[in-house]
Write a structure and sequence with these properties.
The complex is a heterotrimer. By secondary structure, chain A is an all-alpha fold. Chain A folds into two domains: 4-47; 58-259, MetI-like fold (Orthogonal Bundle). Chain A has helices spanning 4-18, 21-39, 51-62, 66-99, 101-114, 123-129, 133-158, 162-170, 175-213, 218-227, 231-259. In chain A, helix 4 crosses helix 10. Chain B contains 13 helices and no strands. Chain B is globular, with a radius of gyration of 23 Å. Chain B starts with a helix and ends with a helix. By secondary structure, chain C is an alpha/beta fold. In chain C, strand 4 (81-86) and strand 5 (89-93) form a beta hairpin. The chains are: A mainly alpha, B mainly alpha, C alpha/beta.
Chain lengths: 265, 266, 292
């Protein structure tokens, strides 16, 4: 009924409607406001550079600096290790918590007690304990994501419909088979949620841990900007970290899509 | 005394004792350097409850409560600020398309930046105390606004339609449908916000404060007062746990209709 | 059981068609979704005349636009052509978008009692918000209605989630009636219920109808339910939805369950089923989906 011409023009209309014009205006106003606040030396903003200052600093000093990109690599490495280890340890523990009643009864309160301790509060103990600085940072990163994934997986197992398990058993499936074919696929969405939350926390933790206890990495870079009183570097650091975090989230999203191909967009 | 006969209770005790024992055992008996440097649980406990603590911090010392007060004050202030700004924004975003488009772009831009990355910038612009509160506020604010928004969006449209049929004004819809409908999600958001506030607080204090539990931890580390480090950690954990529990309690009271329903359904 | 006798009893006068509340006139109504884009024609050129106090059931296959029509009637959605009049007054047209209001209250498919308010608070909601009754008067009337409807006043301070679905629906109908609407719109209200509960609800609904004779527009999938309850059954075509058949149900009132095995009933059912199945086949072949 809708002919080709109409379809293509309506596609254009839909694209135009789909763009978030108001959002673009909001972002533009934000940047403009920033520029103005600095240019007119509004109190508190005297030391702040404008976005253009930040860009020029980046362009001239950091873009080609090996140290800068090394900081990216180092931070990413820490995030990578910490995140992966937390998933590798956390998912099985979460599964055990959900499936083995005895394990749950013993371990749950222990986890509930350790969980509220902010990951960064572990920094000194971690430094004292682990032989290398690198390992202590990875440990902190691990702690952040670990509890999140354990809780999410545990919730995921708990919310599996009993009926599915009964059905499988009545059809003669062995416990291992039930685990493999029902429990694992059912928890995948919870794992996905845990991973998404975990990666955000991991970045948060890495940055702070670097500020406190390391001399490399993007967090350190940002801190050095503060210490050396170069706000442009501070902001540059923040933008870099934001980008890095955004990239990691996209990676995790991609992994999730692979894990759950049945999910509609 | 039913509790004593409850198997689960004993399991729980077993777990916690096990943790203690593992901790103690590993510190006392594992001959690795790493473990040697750890404080053992007995040491920590005796210090914590010592009227005359070796390193100056125990439940009998005023300074301890001083630190607790500072940390709690910062956490609460940032939390309340976040809630009083985040909840209304979340509601507006859920209710009004224009607001949502404005806000979501800005929030989306700022969100990927980990809140703690704001610390150096915050302490450049704002004086010390305000900087820490600002960073905690940011984290809690995002969590609250997002969850409130989700809460409003997830309200079944039929409730809005029913209210319209029954003659509700826009103000009525806000108080009769939107707020109660979003309340469960709002409280989930509040719990997350509280946890996030403590999390950021610890970091903020460790980096940039003069008092507070985070500061205490760092200071103890620098002065090699190891048991005190653990005291600081444990206190933070306890405060975080109890504040979340309190929020859950308040939520339960405000959302009595859910409690009743749950009870009946079993 | 004398239910609802305090509700405004507008006597049904078959002989004269004097101006009594609740005459709905739907004239050549069309509804197109997303006119610049996909252009989905949900309802096209639909015309129905409903007399005051008439009980009309609308049936049809999935996706035939019955719910769309109800949404437009209720004021939740605009129309793209035609007009609707209520008692001769314009209710909705292209230039005059309809507003939802207490003159035509809806009872929803999945139930829309506010879960965070008690039964009593739910029922009193309409008059209180419209400021047509004082708190005390509203409470009195509400409790009275609840009592008459099978002793529901015992659950007045319960929350909806604590009630069975049958009780919830009844409460929702009472909530609607508290506002003394001209038209009662029911969107497949008993769809999710088991047959025993449904039968009970039919009895309650018919009793209520016999006493207050409001105009009722009842959307349903269930042909037997439609014929059993209504004065008129309208069969809609599959998308784009328009009126295919209008059948007057000649069964006497009060309707009794035994009537469902009468000759008359079965003949009507055959005619309705024929029409619906024809359309259902078309819809199936086109892969129509129900828009929840």
């Amino acid at each position: 009924m809708v002919n080709a011409n109409m379809r293509s023009s309506s596609a254009f209309v839909r694209w135009r409607k789909g763009l978030n014009w108001r959002g673009a205006v909001a972002v533009a106003s934000f940047i403009l406001l920033w520029q103005l606040l600095v240019r007119f030396k509004v109190p508190g903003f005297e030391t702040i550079p404008t976005l253009s200052d930040v860009f020029s600093t980046f362009w001239t000093k950091y873009m080609l600096s090996a140290k800068y990109w090394k900081a990216w690599a180092v931070s990413f490495e820490r995030v990578g290790y910490g995140f992966v280890i937390s998933q590798v340890l956390g998912i099985p523990i979460g599964l055990l918590l959900g499936t083995r009643q005895m394990f749950h009864d013993v371990m749950f309160s222990v986890i509930e007690i350790l969980r509220p301790i902010p990951p960064l509060a572990w920094v000194p103990i971690s430094i004292l304990f682990w032989p290398t600085n690198e390992m202590s940072i990875v440990f902190i990163t691990f702690i952040g994501a670990f509890f999140i994934i354990v809780i999410n997986v545990h919730d995921g197992v708990r919310s599996i419909k009993k009926e599915h398990l009964w059905l499988a058993r009545s059809l003669g499936a062995s416990p291992w088979r039930i685990f493999q074919r029902i429990i694992i696929p059912s928890v995948i969405p919870s794992i996905a949620v845990g991973m998404t939350l975990g990666i955000a926390v991991t970045w948060n933790v890495v940055i702070a841990a670097e500020m406190i206890a390391s001399d490399t990495g993007l967090g350190r870079l940002t801190w050095e900007g503060y210490v050396s009183n170069t706000p442009a570097v501070v902001i540059l650091g923040m933008i870099s970290i934001g980008l890095a975090g955004y990239l990691s989230t996209k990676l995790v999203d991609y992994a999730e899509k692979k894990m759950m191909p049945w999910r509609k967009a | 005394m039913r509790m004593l006969r409850n198997r689960k209770f004993w399991m729980m005790c077993a777990g916690n004792l096990g943790l203690f024992a593992l901790w103690y055992g590993s510190v006392k008996w594992i001959p690795l350097e790493s473990f040697r440097r750890m404080p053992d649980p007995v040491r920590v406990m005796t210090e914590w409850f010592n009227p005359n603590p070796v390193f100056g911090i125990s439940i009998f010392v005023k300074t301890y409560y001083f630190h607790i007060l500072y940390s709690s004050y910062r956490a609460l202030v940032s939390f309340f600020l976040a809630v009083s700004l985040g909840v209304p924004l979340g509601i507006l975003m859920g209710w009004n398309k224009k607001v949502r488009e404005f806000a979501s772009a800005l929030l989306g831009l700022l969100q990927p930046v980990p809140p703690l990355a704001w610390v150096p910038l915050a302490i450049l612009i704002l004086p010390g105390e305000a900087a820490v509160i600002f960073v905690c506020f940011l984290v809690a604010f995002f969590a609250t606004a997002l969850n409130t928004y989700v809460g409003v969006k997830s309200i079944d449209p039929d409730y809005f339609r029913a209210a319209a049929c029954l003659g509700a004004s826009r103000k009525d819809v806000l108080f009769d449908v939107i707020i109660p409908g979003a309340l469960p999600n709002i409280f989930t958001g509040l719990q997350i916000a509280m946890g996030a506030a403590w999390f950021s607080l610890a970091a903020g204090e460790m980096i940039a404060a003069q008092y507070g539990l985070g500061f205490l931890i760092m200071e103890s580390y620098n002065l090699v007062q190891v048991p005190t480090i653990v005291i600081g950690m444990a206190t933070l954990g306890l405060l975080g746990y109890f504040s979340s529990m309190f929020i859950r309690y308040v939520g339960g009271k405000l959302m009595r209709w859910r409690e009743e329903a749950m009870g009946v359904k079993g | 059981m004398a239910l609802f006798d305090k509700i405004e009893v507008t006597p049904r006068d078959a002989a004269t068609s004097a101006a009594i509340d609740g005459a709905l006139s739907i004239r050549r109504v069309s509804k197109v979704y997303d006119p610049d884009g996909a252009g989905v024609v949900a309802v096209q050129d639909c015309s129905v005349e409903i007399a005051p106090g008439e009980f009309v059931a609308i049936v049809g296959p999935s996706g035939c636009g019955k719910s769309t029509l109800l949404n437009v009637l209720a004021g939740f959605d605009t129309l793209t052509a035609g007009e609707i009049l209520l008692d001769g007054n314009p209710l909705a047209s292209v230039s005059r978008p309809p507003q939802p209001g207490p003159d035509r209250v809806v009872v929803f498919q999945h139930g829309a009692l506010f879960p965070w308010k008690t039964v009593l608070e739910n029922i009193m909601y309409g008059p209180l918000r419209q400021k047509t009754m004082t708190n005390a008067a509203a409470e009195e009337k509400a409790l009275d209605l609840l009592r008459r409807c099978g002793g529901l006043d015992t659950v007045a301070s319960s929350y909806p989630a604590q009630l069975s679905s049958g009780m919830q629906r009844r409460v929702e109908i009472i909530r609607a009636l508290m506002n003394e609407p001209k038209v009662l719109l029911l969107d497949e209200p008993f769809r999710a219920m088991d047959s025993v509960s449904k039968a009970t609800m039919h009895r309650h609904l018919l009793e209520m109808y016999s006493l207050c004779r409001k105009t009722i527009v009842f959307i349903t999938h269930d042909l037997e339910e439609a014929i059993y309850l209504a004065d008129t059954v309208i069969v809609m075509t599959t998308r784009p939805g328009t009126v295919k058949k209008v059948l007057k149900i000649s069964l006497p009132r009060p309707r009794l369950p035994q009537m469902m095995s009468s000759h008359e009933y079965l003949e009507i059912k055959r005619q309705v089923a024929e029409g619906v199945h024809e359309e259902a086949k078309k819809a199936f072949e086109r892969g129509e989906r129900e828009h929840a």
